[in-house]
Each structure stands twice: as structure tokens, then as C-alpha cells.
Recover the amino acids of this structure.
């Protein structure tokens, strides 16, 4: 059998330790994973697609078998075009489940040959989301330990209040 082609899609606005943990566990199952950053010109994001790709590249530089790409449009179209076998997604508490379930079923309806594989989050990252990180960081709160160190640099560049407290953030 050919090598399984796996993508881990998401907004990653910004990339968090929750995302990183799913990626690392995915790499225990799959030899190689492409993180694909959703480029959505109609949706407002804090970081540009390029910035998100750069922070992911920097945060995963020490991992083998990771590629960082981006896509625009319908995910299953991209998956079919790239001959992807598996879409990897992470699951947190109940809220994610309804949304992810619907998405996975819709994707399967369109592309039955592409399987969605879910990995459950860890206690540590259960309540970590890109949106809560953004909210706390914008107010200068301590997001140390919730995102990879390079992502703190990206956040400090956007939020002066956080930059002022840079030296007092919790270590990674
Ligand atoms: P999207 O906009 O596609 O949901 P996200 O960047 O929010 O993009 O999330 C990408 C994937 O990572 C989703 O499957 C999401 O459930 C998962 N994810 C996000 N945060 C965590 C976390 N703390 N633990 C585990 N999985 C997570």
C-alpha cells in the first residue's frame, strides 16, 4: 500500500500548544503530516496566511515529517486534488464535537474515500483555543505556556500590552 497522505487543516490563528500536541501525536501514527492553513479572504483573521505559516514552520522546525501549506476554498476539493487519504482533526470538549461531526459527515458525503481521523485533546489543552489566546493576549494577560515560544513573539508584535509584559510571562 502507498504511504498514507495526511493533512491537518485549520485556521491556526494563532497556532497553539493544543494544535502542536495533536500534530505530535498524529506523527506517532503517520509518517508525515501536512499542516494546511485555511486562507479565507472573506474571514477576518488576526494573522495573515503567511504569518500563520511562518509561525507553524518555526514552531515545528525540530519535528520530522511536517510540511506547512495553505489552501483556499472547499477543504474536500483540496483533499481530492492532492489525493489525500486522511484529514486529521483534534477534539476538545462537547462543543467541538457537534461541529466536527457535521463537518466530517459532510466531507465524507462529498469524498467518501477521504477518512477523517480525530484525536482527543489532553487535559492540559482542553480549554486552549486560538480565540481565547487572542482575547487574553490582546489584554496583556499571561498566555505563556499555552502557545509555542515563537507564537508569543508574533502576538507581542500585534499587542503592545502583551509586549510590555514579555519578560514576566510564564515559561514555555
Ligand atoms: P478551524 O477553524 O478549522 O476549526 P482551528 O485552528 O480552530 O481551525 O482548529 C484546527 C483543529 O485543531 C480543529 O480540529 C480543532 O478542533 C483542533 N484544536 C484546536 N484547539 C485544540 C486543542 N486545544 N486541543 C486539541 N485540538 C484542538
Amino acid at each position: 500500500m502507498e504511504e498514507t497522505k495526511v493533512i491537518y487543516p485549520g485556521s491556526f490563528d494563532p497556532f497553539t500548544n493544543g494544535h502542536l500536541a495533536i500534530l505530535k501525536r498524529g506523527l506517532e501514527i503517520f509518517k508525515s503530516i501536512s499542516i494546511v492553513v485555511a486562507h479565507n479572504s472573506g474571514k477576518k483573521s488576526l494573522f495573515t496566511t503567511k504569518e500563520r505559516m511562518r509561525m507553524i514552520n518555526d514552531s515545528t522546525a525540530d519535528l520530522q515529517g511536517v510540511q506547512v501549506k495553505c489552501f483556499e476554498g472547499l477543504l474536500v476539493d483540496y483533499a481530492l486534488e492532492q489525493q489525500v487519504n486522511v484529514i486529521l482533526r483534534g477534539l476538545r470538549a462537547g462543543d467541538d464535537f457537534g461541529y466536527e461531526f457535521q463537518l466530517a459527515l459532510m466531507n465524507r458525503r462529498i469524498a467518501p474515500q477521504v477518512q477523517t481521523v480525530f484525536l482527543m485533546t489532553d487535559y492540559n489543552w482542553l480549554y486552549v483555543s486560538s480565540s481565547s489566546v487572542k482575547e487574553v493576549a490582546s489584554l496583556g494577560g499571561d498566555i505563556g505556556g499555552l502557545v509555542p515560544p515563537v507564537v508569543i513573539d508574533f502576538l507581542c508584535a500585534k499587542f503592545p500590552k502583551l509586549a510590555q509584559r514579555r519578560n514576566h510571562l510564564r515559561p514555555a
